[in-house]
Amino acid sequence: NPTHPCDVVLPENINHLYYSFAGISTSDFTITTTHDKDKEYWSRFTALKNKKPSLKTYISVGGWDLGGEVFSHMVQFPGARKAFIDSALSMMSEYGFDGIDIDWEYPAAEDRGGASTDTDDYTDRAPGYLKGFNVTGMEPYVDYFNFMSYDIHGTWDGKSKWTSSDVNPHTNLTEISAGLDLLWRNGVDPSKVLLGLGFYGRSFTLANPSCDTPGCPFNTANNSTGGGVAGECTQTSGILSDYEINRIIEDYSVNVKYDETAGVNWMTWSGNQWVSFDNARTLKQKADFANSKCLGGLFSWALDMGGPGSLKNPNDMSSSDTGMGGANTDGGSDGTGVLYVGPEVLTSPTVTAIAPVDIIFPQDILGSPTVISPESYPTSLEVVWNTTTTVTSGTSTGVSTGTTRYIMPTNIAVPPVTIGTIYYYNWNITNPHVTSTHGSLIPSIDLPPVTVIDDPNPLNETGVSHSPLGTRVINIPPWPWSTGGTVYPNITFNQGS
């Protein structure tokens, strides 16, 4: 998503990150950008290694939108191949990428601009349409094969002579197993295969709301594609992010159907809307499946779509968990969770995320040391002392001992402090239905403890003997303590992934 800054990702449980996608120039076959801000984002993306030095960052070239024609032309000619390879090495060096991911969809696919010679060209020069990939020939030259075990079915099924216009889950362990079997038959090392997890679902509009199980037809009347209603964030018919699916579950109280054999869920709502998807339980199931096949690991598409696996390893999930938690498991059930925003928010005060979200603002480094003189801190202190009181009854005189407790209002003088950095309070938006709102950027300045002397007689009593004076250390909370009457910078929150 070109509007979603990539440097807020917390890569604790991620080993490799792919930036998707770069394109290929049709004029000189060098790697090129696909969005205006790509070059800026490439540097910020690879800088995520500062958060986790062992992280590997890859540039992914291709994707569905690029198609296969430019790949097909590039691999046919030595000069074009050299231009592509040279540009790949150059951009990896310039921007700090550790590797390149080739997402050619698909070699030898005539409906995607491919040619019959692609399979040999790709393999020979790399040093289904699964039939388009000579995986045995490619294996020595690649680190991993990313096995896309999602998008097995979608609205495109209605346009193929091999499939019909029926709703079917876009991921299915039975079909995944059959696809992997083709790799094993060709002697591919399982440790080089990564199993893909989809953090989204494929949606349809049913032709008949009373027929809502896999195999039922989707609506193709009036040249309809059959896709489901576009989501509020993804805004594309036929696909819903995990965030959007979870909101539908909450808003419509739908009955989620779980197919244990296929390892997938589906549900219907609003009469004719249908979607298949993974949640924590089925992601765990797929992780267990990958482990049972000795695969090299897992990957996902895509981090900004959410999913309980975004920052939590599916291997560590509970198989009984049916949640749809968002990108950070400390956050809400369907929101962004904890979001760290960069310093650009201080000059461009807009934050885009999905509520619920806890927005963590960056520190503001001042140009020079600055003295802050806070006002007195209003608080109340508990004062406790032993008392002795002379008691007279008739001709008898005695002494009564006891303890007095008193909550004493006071104002504690706080000495000036010198600071070089300003920190800000978090902004926690808890309402999941908030689409736009405003807040204030309020500083949070730490202050040192203050020593105070106990009042020897806070009640101004007579005839009472107090203990000797004492001192205590009071921890002062971050300043300011009250925001009333003060104008702070305004921050705008907008919903979006």
Automatic annotation (TrEMBL):
SUPFAM superfamilies: (Trans)glycosidases, Chitinase insertion domain. It catalyses: Random endo-hydrolysis of N-acetyl-beta-D-glucosaminide (1->4)-beta-linkages in chitin and chitodextrins. It holds the Pfam family Glyco_hydro_18. Its EC number is 3.2.1.14. One of its GO terms (biological process) is polysaccharide catabolic process. Residues 1-322 form the GH18 domain. GO terms for molecular function: chitin binding; endochitinase activity. The keyword GTP-binding does not apply. PROSITE patterns: GH18_1, GH18_2. InterPro entries: Chitinase_II/V-like_cat, Chitinase_insertion_sf, GH, Glyco_hydro18_cat, Glyco_hydro_18_chit_AS, Glycosyl_Hydrlase_18. Keywords: Carbohydrate metabolism, Chitin degradation, Glycosidase, Hydrolase, Polysaccharide degradation. Belongs to the glycosyl hydrolase 18 family. Chitinase class V subfamily. This is chitinase. It comes from Aspergillus niger (strain ATCC 1015 / CBS 113.46 / FGSC A1144 / LSHB Ac4 / NCTC 3858a / NRRL 328 / USDA 3528.7).
